[in-house]
Amino acid sequence: MHTSRRKKGLANYKNSLLSLVIVSGIAAILWVIINQGEKLSLISETQVPLKKVAETSISTFNAFAENLSHPLALLLLQIIVIIGIARLLGKVMVRIGQPTVMGEIIAGIILGPSLLGLVFPEANAFLFPIHSLGNLQLVSQIGLILFMFIIGMDLDLRVIRKNAQSAMIISHVSIAVPFLLGVMLAYLLYPSFGPQQMGFTAFALFIGIAVSITAFPVLARIVQERGWTKSDVGTTAITCAAANDITAWFLLAAVIALVKAGNINSALVSLGLSAAYITFMIMVMKPLFHRIAEQNFTKETINKPIVAIFLFSLIVSSYITEVIGIHALFGAFLAGVIMPTNINFRHVFQEKVEDLSQVLLLPLFFVYTGLRTQIGLLNEPHLWLVFAAIVAVATIGKFAGSALAARWVGQSWKNSLIIGALMNTRGLMELIVLNIGYDLGVLTPQVFAMMVLMALVTTFMTGPAIDTIEYFYQKKVLPPLTNASAFNILISFGAPPVGSRLLLIAEKFTSPKHKQKSITAAHFSPSADISLQNAKLFEKEGFEPILATAKDRNMKIKTYYMATNEVRKKITETANSDSYNLMLVGSSKQLLSSDETGGKVSHFFDDVECSVGVLIDRGFTELNRIAIILDDPSDNHLLRLGQLITENATANITALASFEMAIPEKELFRFTLMDDVMHTDKLIEAAADYDLTIVSLNFWKKTKDYSIGALLESQSLLIVNK
């Protein structure tokens, strides 16, 4: 053995020596080549004057400065700043109950001449020099094309047809009334604010469209955030907004064709070509795309060739409508509308496009709009009065028109007013229309600034308006009567498999003695910024495991779904909104913590009114043997859960206590009580043989920070606070 080690050491020495010789030889050869190459230069380094060395240092600094101002480096810097500020302000807006898009629009105005250019003009000139705006515009237009494609996919024409009778009346009135008021307003504005090179007709039509537009994406997010997607008011508002968008974009296409053509004959030619192209897309391309989707609707089958086909059709459609004269965005919108209706196909395809568009490219459009918005032009009091008139016309026309039409078709006053408030939101769709008008020369810089501010104000007022309506129409609800025979459980879960695990525990607490018992499963998507199609798919996928478990065990459960930016708040509100006796949730950790009752779970213990049970799942397979640890007399509230389990008669339960219990308590609760009083660590060791251990929150806090807490790491625990 000793000889073997010597041979191995000698071999390692030889290999190391050989490596050293090879590296040294290569280094020597390189030195000779470089040394001889330097002699080829006419001027050696020793002959370079000091002035030349100084110039070299200066040129190095200049080269660095040139790199900073290189178009690619500048564009990347712009994207970094734009995305950072847009996401930050988006978070702030969500905190105050506003949609994320509000923060992104405000970010654009902040980075533009209205604030950054006014306070720090040098920084504005460095970050957004005039020569760089062309690149920023082109990249933002690509983002808009992808966004309009997604908007087209979000529109479910089947929903429009299903609710067509009443929704179409509301939609048409909500366009016609503000459009008429907008044209009347344009008549008053044109002498002072109309572009000299553009006739009144184009100006009036653009103002009419601008005040009658509705932001379908923002409206859909608000409906999702408030949990109205399956309610009458929610489905009606979404249907109206979808029909409104389709009508508005066709009107806009007609106006663009008229403005670009310059005369009615050329405009009619453009509209005729547009009608022919739309017919071709619906009659030829839509059935073809549907057949492709029938065979390819999973992530595995929607591969690069399939994605290439649909993206190619998107680009071609945008190009054709741009050449026809009705703008590339209309072609992108149309390409999205004719996409296959298969929900799985749309979801997978949207995943590939949506994040790139909305996170990376779309904020560039907001900033580009902000760079065009010069609030400083509104430097006289009468200009702000004109702005107030624009806001009033837009709000009265849209809000009142939609609300009265909704009331006419049979909606209650509350729902009618809510529909009016929802239809009055404008957001991004308004900015798209305004930028098109600005590019065509229809809107002057002053009018453009007023209309951008109007879009901000009308979008911002939607949330507070709905809250005010609900406040005045709120019903006085009497507190529920206490019913000893009722036991209601709320299961709130994130990952779908966790829901099934929690349901197995909830089953143990539903005693046959409870004449009124219910289990409600709630699932919350942690973002309201998802499409309606994705929300439906997430709801379906989220509840599939728990519904399958309920079916296998012959259990009836209710389901509740919501997409929200404030998951913790909505879970708490849901738990406190009904007479629940127990809420079951899975464990959670903060980012840099190992505490499994940290994160949002820690707030539930304090904020939720009913008992809260947090499951730390270590992989139980059955729940035949359950232990309850009673480490202190304050843990006696766990005995109530023990009694429920014994009444269910589907599991054996044992109480492990570290204190002497009174005889009446032993007799009252019909389950095994260990006669021996045990120390805390012995309690944990004894519980190791059980499928599930129920402990109090106080006991968990006591043990998790000490060495005996390590004994709990292999056990499934249910931590109950009260």
TrEMBL record:
**What membrane topology term does the record carry?**
Multi-pass membrane protein
Name the GO terms of the biological process aspect: proton transmembrane transport
Q: Where are the transmembrane segments?
A: 12-34, 72-89, 101-120, 140-157, 169-190, 202-223, 235-258, 264-285, 306-335, 355-371, 383-405
Subcellular location(s) per record: Membrane
* Annotated ranges, domain Cation/H+ exchanger transmembrane: 88-466
What organism does the record attribute this protein to?
A: Williamwhitmania taraxaci
Q: Name one GO molecular function term.
A: antiporter activity
Q: Where is it chiefly localized? A: membrane
Can you list the GO cellular component terms from the UniProt entry? membrane
Record key words, sorted: Ion transport, Membrane, Transmembrane, Transmembrane helix, Transport
What is the name listed in the Swiss-Prot or TrEMBL entry for this protein? Transporter, CPA2 family
